[in-house]
Write a structure and sequence with these properties.
The structure holds two protein chains of two kinds. Chain A is an alpha+beta fold. Chain A has seven helices and ten strands. Residues 1-14 of chain B have low confidence and may be disordered. The chains are: A alpha+beta, B mainly alpha.
């Protein structure tokens, strides 16, 4: 490097030092403070290196070039493993029967992790062993049928080992048990409602076309099965522990997704159709329902709550909730005054 | 000017080469400054126009990513953008990067520059259509940019544009943004089709004598296969966009079922939101390979050249590209395991998706086996190639998580997905783009890029990007959903996750600024770079054997080159030199090679 270049780079680095120091000085956040200091350190070390390089060159010392590339590539591979092992960020304790899913993910981590490590470490070793030196020439070998087919077969075997358990668990995931309890989760921009069958154990039919101020969930008022349905419009969905539940999912406007991280299960809500997922809650507690399919500007705030409780507590809670028939009748009574004042054409 | 009608006998008598199958045609020779540099029909100029436009719009996407990261890292202390602008930023960032930068740069940029030079053609077969392709692309970009300035701003529908949300009022940019986005995509596809036909027909019809398909450099194979994929996949997006535009403007119901929006009944009825997802991903998955296959091809050539060794298993590499391209059309629904489609699709698509891992892994093995017993020069392009291998393997194996239907269930729609696709189709291909620019800039300008700046740029970009996206996987494993402008109260998230988000944001800013150094290097080296000479990397492929550097109009002077061998004759035992250009006759090479 010429000295002119050194002055330019050195000037930039001095500016970097100043920027780093000022960031560290004014930064309110801990992260900003350390970032500033690291920038400052990078600047100082680089300037020091430039000065040393200028001296070495002036005294005619040969430029030493250590081979850092293989070492750094190796560091990236090992750093990945260390990060993985040391990461405090990992899935929380499971609260459903889907520990098979966790098992499949762990299996995938093991198999793919070993492949990642093998490939990158081998690459770093090649970069070290076969780096350009005087006298080193490359070996001419267009292909090796045995090696290539061997690796292909080994890979196919590894992939099959990942896929096979995955398919069995998927089959289980999409097949709700016959005795599972059915509940319904309804999504609309941007909140959750729930419906549970009443004493008859059957949910009434619904249609988006029936959605109105009186009937916000679009339940068919003429369907006898729907009269005793329990409607939860604000508040948490309660479910009994250790009883399989199939959640029927219905959206009135856009795509949403019913996702409870502790249950490991999620499924989209699609307007115009009913989708479903099932699980068995395995411990009591309060869990957050997140909308996991982008649904408009308040997507991040579309949260719900599910409470997993003992069977007796569930029965008591269910009994205390209003049914569709009582809500609809109450809405009908209140309607003429409420609606006529805002829009006369709707009042018949 | 080039005298293309000359019919001189081949110089090296006895070095048999098949006769030309397609007679040469005369090229349009530019007569004015405008036709030479603006409305130019020379593929090399069009390539630079494509590249410049793609990089310019890419800088917009870079700034958007900073805004997003600042919002995610410091949701409370910095209030640069609100939720609405956050969603507009993610949408525009995603669409710009995938379509207007990566697709345009790989196919329009590298495709235009490299295909004619590498197959030994004077230009693309339809130069006028090729020129038109760029100007239509520019129009698409301008329409896209216009959406930043219309009332309501650009669409915030997410880059997947899923209806019904994309055209309803709960999404930002519903009035104008979404219309301009759909129109821009439609225009882009029209422009791309003109270019894509050119790339495919040029490879099939305009190869020089001796350039058999199985002698083509893998760069050409990658770009060629990607162009075929794009020609087959973009129509699905095209009809999806047209139908969505009709739903928005004419009130049709292709994708719109009965909807009660905020309690109000809409007029739509009977459409299927999932139909759009099928159309989108029938395009969207091949799109991944439209970006990846050119990167695969280019990186193969970078590794072979800078490790001075033949690419290992060339024939397998070609077949892997073709098989991956074919399979990419029957895996699309792995993006939809939790979309509510018939769950039995899951079995089929999980199997096809994991099968595609086999040829892909084979390519990785062959890259590494090319390094093995090579003579590796740690040039800047080689560094980027090594960085590509690390990030691509990392991103590829997380694909094995998401492709396996049941593993996808907890991970889908979380930051794990964000980390996966950024690593595999963001970082990895972009490292190849950088490597390719460091590699071919000397041919395009006659000067080398500054090596010190290049090394600095590589290490900051590679280590930084890796440090950005590796931790995001773990947020996803924890259950952090994507497309949340702030996490708010999530009981399962420890405080340290917020600190992690801050660190990632700071690294993202640093990596972003390092790209400015790269842009500076591009400009600085144009004037002050070391003169490169015709073949600074001592490479075998035809673009390095041109009589002029940068190559003139018509590429190859009076005579088109005749090809005698494949593109990878490095360190052939007994040869006169450590590389044998593809057009070097056996009589001068000193050895008879068989490929």
């Amino acid at each position: 490097m010429r000295n002119g270049g050194r002055w330019v780079v050195g000037g930039c680095m001095a500016a970097l030092c100043l920027i780093g120091l000022s960031i560290a000085a004014v930064g309110q956040e801990r992260t900003l403070y350390w970032t500033g200091l690291i920038l400052f350190a990078i600047g100082v070390i680089t300037i020091f290196g430039l000065i040393r390089g200028a001296y070495d060159e002036a005294e005619g010392r040969p430029r030493r070039r250590r081979q850092v590339v293989p070492a750094l590539m190796l560091a990236v591979a090992l750093g990945t493993v260390v990060f993985h092992l040391a990461s405090p960020w990992w899935w929380g304790p499971i609260a459903s029967n889907w520990e098979y899913i966790d098992f499949t993910i762990s299996l995938t981590f093991w198999i793919t992790g070993l492949v990642f490590l093998a490939v990158v470490v081998f690459m770093a070793w090649c970069a070290h062993r076969f780096r350009h030196r005087p006298g080193n020439t490359a070996h001419y070998e267009p292909e090796s049928r045995r090696l290539e087919w061997g690796l292909t077969l080994a890979t196919a075997f590894g992939v099959a080992a990942l896929l096979t358990p995955g398919l069995f668990v998927w089959d289980e995931f999409i097949t709700p048990p016959e005795d599972s309890q059915q509940v319904e989760a309804i999504g609309q921009q941007w909140y959750w409602s729930f419906r549970l069958p009443g004493e008859d154990g059957v949910l009434g039919t619904t249609s988006t076309r029936l959605v109105s101020v009186d009937n916000p969930l679009g339940i068919n008022p003429d369907d006898p099965n729907g009269q005793d349905d329990v409607v939860v419009q604000s508040g948490a969905l309660h479910l009994p522990v250790n009883r399989p539940v199939t959640v029927l999912l219905r959206s009135q406007d856009v795509l949403h997704n019913f996702y409870v991280p502790e249950f490991r299960a999620k499924m989209d809500l699609v307007p115009g159709m009913v989708t479903q997922l099932w699980f068995t809650p395995t411990r009591t507690g309060s869990f957050q329902i997140l909308c996991a399919e982008y649904c408009g500007v308040q997507h991040a705030n579309m949260r719900g709550q599910v409470e997993i409780v003992e069977e007796a507590e569930f029965a008591a809670w269910l009994g205390a909730q209003p049914t569709f028939a009582t809500m609809y009748a109450a809405a009908g009574r209140d309607r003429p005054t409420a609606v006529a004042s805002s829009d006369g054409s709707l009042a018949e | 000017m080039v005298d293309v009608t000359s019919d001189r006998a081949i110089a090296d008598v006895g070095d048999a080469a098949p006769p030309a199958e397609v007679p040469e045609v005369d090229l349009y020779h530019a007569k004015s400054w405008i036709t030479k540099y603006v409305f130019c029909q020379d593929a090399k100029v069009i390539a630079i126009q494509y590249g410049g436009t793609a990089v310019a719009i890419g800088l917009v996407a870079l700034v958007l990513s900073w805004l997003m990261r600042l919002q995610l890292g410091f949701p409370e202390s910095l209030s640069l953008i609100d939720a609405e602008q956050y969603y507009q930023a993610i949408t525009m960032h995603g669409m710009i990067m995938v379509i207007y930068l990566l697709t345009a740069l790989f196919l329009g940029g590298f495709g235009n520059y490299l295909i004619p030079l590498m197959v030994g053609a004077r230009d693309m077969v339809f130069p006028y259509v090729n020129m038109l392709s760029y100007w239509v692309y520019l129009l698409a970009v301008l329409i896209l940019v216009a959406s930043f300035f219309v009332p309501g701003g650009p669409t915030g529908a997410g880059w997947t544009l899923y209806p019904p949300q994309a055209i309803l009022s709960g999404t930002p940019g519903r009035d104008w943004g979404i219309i301009l986005m759909l129109v821009s995509l439609i225009v882009f596809i029209i422009g791309f089709t003109m270019g894509g036909l050119n790339y495919v027909v040029t490879v099939l019809q305009a190869r020089t004598r001796g350039m058999t398909l199985m002698r083509m450099p893998l760069t050409v194979w990658g770009i060629f296969t990607a162009s075929v994929l794009a020609l087959l996949a973009f129509p699905a997006l095209f009809v999806g966009c047209v139908m969505l535009l009709f739903d928005r403007l004419l009130g049709t119901s292709f994708f719109m079922p009965a909807i009660a929006e905020f309690g109000q009944q809409l007029d739509h009825d009977g459409g299927s939101p999932i139909l759009f997802q099928h159309l989108f991903w029938f395009f969207g998955h091949p799109e991944v390979y439209i970006v990846a296959l050119p990167a695969f091809g280019i990186v193969s050539d970078l590794i072979a050249t800078h490790a001075r060794r033949n690419i290992f298993g060339y024939r397998m590499m070609v077949w892997a590209i073709i098989i991956i391209g074919g399979l990419s059309f029957i895996v699309w629904a792995h993006h939809m395991y939790v979309s509510g489609m018939n769950p039995y699709f899951g079995f089929f698509f999980a199997v096809t998706t994991l099968i595609i891992a086999v040829p892909t892994a084979l390519k990785v093995y062959n890259w590494v086996l090319t390094l093995w017993r090579g003579d590796i020069h740690f040039t800047v392009p080689m560094l980027f190639a090594l960085g590509f291998i690390v990030t691509f393997v990392n991103g590829g194996i997380t694909g094995l998580f998401l492709g396996n239907a049941v593993v996808d269930v907890p991970l889908s729609d979380t930051m794990f997905v964000v980390a996966h696709f950024h690593m595999v189709m963001g970082v990895a291909p972009i490292l190849v783009i950088f490597g390719a620019i460091y590699h071919w800039y000397p041919k395009m300008t006659g000067r080398m890029l500054h090596e010190g700046m290049g090394r600095f740029h590589f290490w900051v970009t590679f280590v930084g990007a890796y440090a950005i996206f590796l931790p995001l996987h773990y947020l996803g494993l924890m259950g952090v959903p994507r497309r949340y402008h702030e996490l708010g109260n999530m009981p399962f998230i420890p405080e340290s996750a917020h600190t992690l988000n801050e660190i990632v944001t700071v690294i993202a800013l640093i990596v972003g600024f390092a790209q400015l150094l790269f842009l500076f290097n591009l400009g600085w080296s144009l004037r002050y770079g070391k003169p490169a000479g015709p073949n600074p990397w001592r490479a075998t492929t035809l673009e390095w054997q041109t009589p002029e550097t940068p190559p003139g109009h018509g590429n190859f002077g009076r005579e088109l080159p005749v090809v005698y061998r494949w593109a990878y004759d490095y360190n052939v035992p007994g040869a006169a030199q450590d590389f044998l250009p593809q057009n070097m006759p056996p009589s001068r090479a000193g050895v008879q090679t068989h490929v």
